[in-house]
């Protein structure tokens, strides 16, 4: 059990299960990208541990780069838009694997992929550690999914509550009384 500010979280996915699943995903990537020299695009901050552990099991040649997604309001009526920060390399003609911590509504990854698509990569695949199918609002093709989970707030192994709690080996879920 772990308490952060006013919230209590209970164990949800143990560290060894996370590591075993990541190894399986990496082996799949090793097979499917054997002749492709992929560019792995890690979405910070949440995916930093997942990406690091995934990369340790990727044995084919690949490049790794890091982006952030900033939310901003362009106008009051159009709501939150997302902007990709930190992408310095040209992605035209590359095979991208976008690495995310979690796909919840899917709005973030959908918009990231649309913006990347406009830069003419050869292909885009999504690798997400966690996926909440019942929260999804966008039609998305998720190529590599670690765990499908129910629609509850999770924390740890990169995922935060108010900036805290990213630094754990296991994943916790919000304890609801
Ligand atoms: P969506 O898919 O809804 O997700 O655009 C946007 C971002 O929200 C964060 N997120 C979470 N963070 N526990 C967290 O710690 C959660 O259960 C959770 N659900 C969504 C995450 O940063 C994701 O990229
Ligand atoms: Mg995130």
UniProtKB/TrEMBL annotation:
UniProt GO molecular function? guanine phosphoribosyltransferase activity; hypoxanthine phosphoribosyltransferase activity; magnesium ion binding; nucleotide binding
Q: Which residues form the signal peptide?
A: none
A Pfam family reported for this protein in Swiss-Prot or TrEMBL: Pribosyltran
Q: Which InterPro entries match?
A: HGPRT, Hxn_phspho_trans, PRTase-like, PRTase_dom
The UniProt entry's GO CC annotations, sorted and at most eight, read: cytosol
Concerning its family, UniProt says:
Belongs to the purine/pyrimidine phosphoribosyltransferase family.
Principal subcellular localization: cytoplasm
Question: Which reactions are catalysed by this chain?
Answer: GMP + diphosphate = guanine + 5-phospho-alpha-D-ribose 1-diphosphate; IMP + diphosphate = hypoxanthine + 5-phospho-alpha-D-ribose 1-diphosphate
Q: Which UniProt keywords apply?
A: Cytoplasm, Glycosyltransferase, Magnesium, Metal-binding, Nucleotide-binding, Purine salvage, Transferase
Q: Where would I find the Phosphoribosyltransferase domain in this sequence?
A: 17-161
GO biological process per UniProt:
GMP salvage; guanine salvage; hypoxanthine metabolic process; IMP salvage; purine ribonucleoside salvage
UniProt protein name:
Hypoxanthine phosphoribosyltransferase
> Which pathway?
Purine metabolism; IMP biosynthesis via salvage pathway; IMP from hypoxanthine: step 1/1
Query: Where can this protein be found?
Result: Cytoplasm
* Group of enzyme by EC: transferase
* Enzyme Commission designation: 2.4.2.8
Which cofactor does the UniProt annotation name? Answer: Mg(2+)
